[in-house]
Amino acid sequence: MGNQPVRVAILGTGRISDLHAIEYKQNPKGKIVALCDQNVKQAQSQAEAWGVDDPIISDDYREILARPDVDLVEILLPHHLHLQAALDAIAAGKMVSLQKPMCMNMEEADILVEAAESYDRPFKIFENFIFHPPVLKAKELVDAGAIGDPISIRIKSNPGKSK
Questions:
Q1: What is the pTM of this model?
Q2: How far, in Å, are 20, 50, 156 from residue 53 at the CA level?
Q3: Does a structural domain hold residue 146?
Q4: In a domain, 153, yes or no
């Protein structure tokens, strides 16, 4: 690839996709080239909203995975589709970014971890709040024993919309 940007396909153009698209739009090392969603009109609308020039649009992620002009897939599909989509992306030789939760249960997670560990391309599970300042502060307080032993955690967030 050299100096060329990583060509990104976003699989799933629901609400969370806006937050992922923001970084790809701002980063000269990445370029959104494809969008995939069962709702093709929604994918087209997101492509327009994000200013994606001449996007590849599909309602079948396997069609996107077969394309040699896609380097990385951002998997933002419903959770029950994560395992198969990630395994298919590995089989297609794509770099993979998978939105959490990675799978529906530990059995699926073990399968995916085994596949990712033997894979020679980048593979990441995207946990978007792990470095969020309020989460880091809460961890600091818990680690210091300042707030006792937590029995649950509740986080409320407001989704963003790119312009």
A1: 0.79
A2: 17, 9, 34
A3: no
A4: no
SS3 of residue 147 by DSSP: coil
- The rounded distance, in Å, linking the Cα atoms of 38 and 13 is 9
Q: Is residue 145 included in any domain, yes or no?
A: no
Show the domain range for 80: 6-131
pLDDT digit string, tens, across residues 12-29: 999 889 888 988 998 999
> Rounded to whole angstroms, how far apart are CA atoms 49 and 97?
22
Is residue 67 left, alpha or beta, with left meaning phi > 0 and alpha meaning psi from -120 to 50? Answer: beta
The secondary element (H helix, E strand) that includes residue 73 is strand 72-75
Per the structure, the count of domains in the chain is 1
**142 lies in a domain?**
no
- Torsion angle in degrees (nearest 10) through CA of 121, 27, 102, 88: -50
CATH of residue 121's domain is 3.40.50.720
